[in-house]
């Protein structure tokens, strides 16, 4: 699905990662991890995420579809008013709540627990970070270019968390449309850490595919709109979400895609993206997170 519109003399094409579970980009990424897990004869998954995590929700539901056991290590409060956490619970996944600092040790303990029970667990980093996830969006870039010969973007803007989606898009578009610039709008991480991980991810994918590594000028991770971190909101963010919903019927959420859209609007307003540019807005999904902010959105 795609949608064309304009804002301040900038042409925008929005494309959507759609899935029945509203997992968006995480459904595509996890399908690549699942294929790898099956090839390794796995029969259980251990992964992690916050209560609003699209990745963790998709992992839990995918395991239910496979008939596999699944542990989600949740670095958040046990609050089932969060739609994604509720779906994790409904899927039958084992939810282990801990602090962000303890995620690694708890995941390791869950891997060992599965092994002790005679299972073959498969480890997936939070956010679906890893080579299978990078490949998913390298392939997605190719699919976009093949299906949209009429639209060659100057910029590709999307919500960037752990950087796996962005790494795949950077390497893919660098190969096919080298003039295009992928702009990741951070949903949580600060720029220094985000760019470091993104550099490592792009290098890993490029080396796997046998390409030269991309130049530093291709690594762009904007942290201007993270606020207080993951899941934080602001009146300005809600204003952007409501403006594009009313003006263009484009629905985004405050945790992921709304932040990316707000960043896009601000970059157009401040001239980072010049009038006359063509922008691809890659909508990575996550609309379930919209519904916990009803009061802010109906004002």
TrEMBL record:
Pfam families named in the record: PALP
Alphabetized UniProt keyword annotations: Pyridoxal phosphate
Cofactor: pyridoxal 5'-phosphate
Membrane recorded as keyword: no
Sites bearing N6-(pyridoxal phosphate)lysine, chain numbering: 26
Protein family according to the UniProt entry: Belongs to the ACC deaminase/D-cysteine desulfhydrase family.
Name of this protein: Tryptophan synthase beta chain-like PALP domain-containing protein
